[in-house]
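Sanity check

After download, print the first record. It should look like this:
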Amino acid sequence: MSRWNGRFRRPLHPDALRFSTSLSVDRQLYSEDIDGSIAHVEMLSKQHILSRAEAQRIRRALQEIRLEISRGKLRFDPADGSDGRFVAEDIHMAIEKRLIQKIGDAGGKLHTGRSRNDQIALDERLYLRRSINGITGLIRKLQKALVAKAEQCVDVIMPGYTHLQQAQPVLLPHHLLAYISMLDRDHERFLDCLERVKRSPLGGGALAGTSFPIDRRFVAKKLQFDCVIENSIDAVSDRDVQIEFLSACAISMMHLSRFGEELVLWTSQEWRFAEIGDAFATGSSIMPQKKNPDMAELIRGKTGRTYGNLLSLLTVMKGLPLAYNRDMQEDKEPLFDSERTLADCLHISALMLKTVKFNKDRFSKDSTTDLLLATELADYLARKGLPFRKAHSVVGKIVQASVRRGISLKELPLKEYRRHSPLFANDLWKILDLRASLYHKKSSGSTSPKEVAKAIRYWRAKLRRS
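Expected structure tokens:
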């Protein structure tokens, strides 16, 4: 039976209760709910709305309830108590009902000057704050794993790809450092979101505030928020920080998915560039030779669900008039799922990466790899005065000749080069070398060994500080 049953002649139908309950989802907010309630009751005592003795009894009982839940001694049931479980509609009412059971009518005073609308808004912000701190820590762990792997493979050359076609030679650590940069922006996005999370909605009431002389800023400070949300309607009726968090999760998962996709490709027989440790791969139920990169594939697959979670909450909110509407109960499942999914994927990515071994000679022994130096040939002609667009066309014809004859660029005779341009000379052979091409790079942030080494030092120092 609902706590507001005084307004109604008949209790809520059991099926309607089952349909509308959120207890199975929001029960994981029990600790945040108790934290918020303790801060609220301390404020009520400070403002002489409750006596000090009442506040102490409530606070002590709330701490006992926290232990009961954490130890599994208090089990909840949203519908009925036929099996001895505790009947409640949501975690907020469950805790309040248990409080009243423990200390009597004094427990019912906890809700003075507060609505479930601002209560849940507070709980979710406390949850987001904790989640963001956890996720940013996991991002840093993955970044450190990437730096460590980059240092292990500092001399490995691989093709850089565009359109999934071999493009130019790059150092493998340069490729890995790109993911570190992506993850760093993810880290920044979560910290930026945190700035908006750290604003307390408590005191907004149902939507209009309260007639009790509460001290909103006292509660905000007690809970380590930076400030309060000034407008009471806004405090209870928006979920933009939740949406922002889901967006940051989706972007981070997109980055993890791209890395997962590359591991899937690199570990294939066609690439033969990397191998994932046995502890993070699986076999086939029918094909004994298979070693499948399942963890990378699962990361790639789970990304779609985080996109769906973001769209789900955006869709819930898009047509809602102010202020609170029950539709907003549907924010929790996508919120909890995306947080859990991203945290799991960050954790498993860091562990898996440590087991990855690269075939360091895979591309240096491939006779066709020097086609990656076509751009170097065009730059060679451009440095000798030929307009780059013409140089591009000349080298395209040379590549065509190399492919047609089935030989590498190094194997083409000088007379073949000179047939296409008299600017080619014996110094040509100095640039037809994969490693030399890397040293020729001059721009900052490039794949030159000097720039890559500088980038590794930068990230190692930055991550050590964080």
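If your output differs, re-run the checksum step. Summary of this record's structure: Residues 116-152 form the longest helix (37 residues).
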